Amino acid sequence: MTEPTTLGNELLRSAARLSRWASRHASFDVPFAQARLLALLDELGPSRVSALAAADHSSQPTITTQLQRLEASGWVHRASDPDDARATVISLSEEGHAALESVRRARLAVLSPALDQLDGPALDRVRVAIDVMNELLAAAADAPVPHPTRKDG
Amino acid sequence: MTEPTTLGNELLRSAARLSRWASRHASFDVPFAQARLLALLDELGPSRVSALAAADHSSQPTITTQLQRLEASGWVHRASDPDDARATVISLSEEGHAALESVRRARLAVLSPALDQLDGPALDRVRVAIDVMNELLAAAADAPVPHPTRKDG
DNA sequence: CAATTTACATAGACAACCTATGCATATCAA
DNA sequence: TTGATATGCATAGGTTGTCTATGTAAATTG
After folding, report:
1. B134 touches chain A (CB under 8 A)
2. In this structure, what are the phi and psi dihedrals at residue B44, rounded to the nearest 5 degrees?
3. DSSP codes, A4-37
4. Nearest CA to CA, how far is B89 from chain A (Å)?
5. Of A139, A142, B4, B14, which one has the fewest beta carbons inside 10 Å?
6. A11 within domain boundaries
7. Residue B58 lies in a domain
8. Residue B133 resides in a domain
């Protein structure tokens, strides 16, 4: 039952469902992908557009579009890179930090009823889950797949 | 450092990133949400539209739209419920099963380079991750949140 | 300095959602 | 039975998220 064959699919399915559930039930005003980008900016600090695209595993135009929305909301600042006039350095504004915090609070509120039922050992298992997914992402970054985004054959 | 305050957010962030990464790198022809719905149908068996919406944590019109796409691809069948003329019973077709299998193979292929590096104990940790997320989803279903989808206040 | 590459923006398309609403059938009450 | 209400699904219309293809300006390179 626990063949490696199904393990990867089960992991992805559970992760997708948890994300889906959280994005459906957590009530906050920041659209999902924009919240993801705010969190990434908070983690990386001021970054170029292309660096954000790479870190987020999305295309550069996608990030450009999202940044326009974040900027329209006043959540990020934009500065040209003194070393390269083509490049733009994006950073979180005060309001962006605040928006990110509100997202985190909302998510926590929605998960709390479930998390609060857990005891110490169960919390350790949650920590394992986080670590495992992060490790897989890191390993995947090291050993990239043959053809990233092809759809036909 | 492992305060419960951040644990939930970290879990959701890692789950979202893993899903994002997989949907970006796994190359198959079935759109992400449609694959999710195929998997759900495979798991639940023939189901009503509203049952699928509830199980997927999405709205009924969303499921209706996705089912129209799945039906256009020949992946599901539609039958009226003999007990209730308003209701429709959806089931996977042969082609739907095949499509789901191809999705699973593609996902596995994209995760394999990372999974193959893991030894037995590491695989056990993956299993823990899956179980933890499933348990949290089940717990969340038991203890629903006050106001599911409100955005203002 | 011309050619190429790099960094980002724009254009256009589709998928994935949502809320509001419509329509048909079921159910319930009188 | 029939009118009111509830339920199950479809439709309408809009926003968000994402992609590929392409354009533009600046950097790099021969």
Report:
1. yes
2. -85, -25
3. HHHHHHHHHHHHHHHHHHHHHH---SS-HHHHHH
4. 23
5. A142
6. no
7. yes
8. no
| Tally of structural domains, chain B | 1
Which amino acid residue lies closest to nucleotide D21, measuring CA to C1'? A61
Instruction: Say how far apart CA B107 and CA B65 lie, in whole Å.
Output: 24
Q: Burial, B18: exposed, middle or buried (Cβ in 10 Å; 0-12, 13-18, 19+)?
A: buried
- Per DSSP, the residues of A86-134 read EEEEEEE-HHHHHHHHHHHHHHHHHHHHHHTT--HHHHHHHHHHHHHHH
Where residue B90 sits, what CATH number does that domain have?
A: 1.10.10.10
| Of B136 and B146, the one with more pLDDT | B136
Through-space separation of residue A79 CA and nucleotide C3 C1' in angstroms: 30
The residue type at A11: L
Closest alpha carbon to C1' of C16, residue? B33
- Domain hosting A77: range is 21-113
Q: How far apart are CA B149 and CA B58, in angstroms?
A: 11
